Amino acid sequence: MKLLDGRTLLANIKEELKSEVAAIIDHNERPPHLAAVLVGNDPSSLSYVASKEKACHQVGITSSVYQYPENFTENELLQVIDFLNNDQDIDGYIVQLPLPPHIDPNKIILSISPDKDVDGFHPYNLGRMMMGQPSFIPATPLGIMQMLERYQIETEGKHCVVLGRSMIVGTPVSILLSRKAKPGNATVTLCHSYTQNLKEICLSADILIVAIGKPHFVTVDMVKEGSVVIDVGIHRIPDSTNEKGYTIVGDVDFEEVSKKTEWISPVPGGVGNMTIAGLLMNTLKAWKQRNIRQNIY
After folding, report:
1. Mean pLDDT of 35-54
2. Does the pLDDT of residue 131 top 60, yes or no?
3. Per the count of CB atoms within 10 A, which of 40, 92, 126, 220 is most buried?
């Protein structure tokens, strides 16, 4: 078993981005600027935004956070988005999900300028991605593709099974892996809650990507010997033996499944780090696109 180490990859990508941002600053240009909009106090969202801020600081990207209370209205949020769309000093921004129940996430995503949509959730970017055209790729799928590429995991001709069909992870990564590209050219099976014979399908996977949102859902009897397993899930499980009071686990039973795989991503220390990497890469890309249009870069 070998680890798909997201921490090491993120550190490497940070160094690459840090050099590019330093070159931008050396040319007397302002650095890329990433903003995050947060409504409410969801612990996972707060943790992710804090990690994003720290990573931005480490590579020289300017970071701003717009945080609002749980009762912030949909109209108020749309006004914030309109401001961010028109702020020339902000290259890209994210609206952190999940949003409170009284706010329609689809309406919010549609209001984000595609040119600043560094989360890659706008239909314009998803459509361009599907057609193989330049676009912002959702951060987690982008991070997964970087992980496959940088660890030189062969995907061509392989059977890739994706568990979970969300527009944030499962569906985009299934499209990316099936495209005529490298990594890509895989035969992809996208599974979901209505899939029959799930265990048999998983056992046929050369590459298994798990984004199903259930702790330890994938067990050792569902995984082929010598396969590659990428675990996207992250869950806090109460644990009285841990000083934090909880243990973080993924969608895969890592302890047992890792004995059977050639490569596996850990939780934590795997895909979560690559999501941050994808967001930073998209932010620099947004800066370049804006400045190329203005004949600066």
Report:
1. 93
2. yes
3. 92
Contact between residue 11 and residue 5 where contact means Cβ atoms under 8 Å apart: no
| Predicted confidence (pLDDT) per residue in 179-220, tens digit | 999 999 999 999 999 999 999 999 999 999 999 999 999 999
Same-domain pairing of 34 and 151: no
- Phi, then psi, of 149 in degrees rounded to 5: -70, -45
Tokens 């020339």 appear where? 88
Residue 145 and residue 263 in one domain: yes
CA distance 269 to 194: 30
End-to-end Cα separation, the chain, in angstroms: 44
Query: How many domains in the chain?
Result: 2
The first and second tokens of residue 212, run together, are 């199903």
Mean pLDDT, residues 234-252 = 89
Instruction: Give me the active site residues, please.
Output: 52, 96, 119
Q: Does residue 139 contact residue 279 with C-beta atoms inside 8 Å?
A: yes
Task: Please state, for a pLDDT cut of 70, what percent of the chain lies above it.
Answer: 98
Residues 148 and 80 in one domain: no
Per the structure, the complete domain to which residue 94 belongs is given by: 28-113
User: Does 105 lie in the same domain as 171?
Assistant: no
Tell me, what CATH number does 94's domain have? 3.40.50.10860
Residue 123, domain member (yes or no): no
CB-CB contact of 256 with 220 (8 Å):
yes
Nearest Cα to 141, choosing from 159, 121, 158, 122? 121
Q: To 10 degrees, what angle do helices 6-26 and 271-293 make?
A: 20
**Sheet of strand 62-68: strand arrangement:** 62-68, 33-39, 92-95
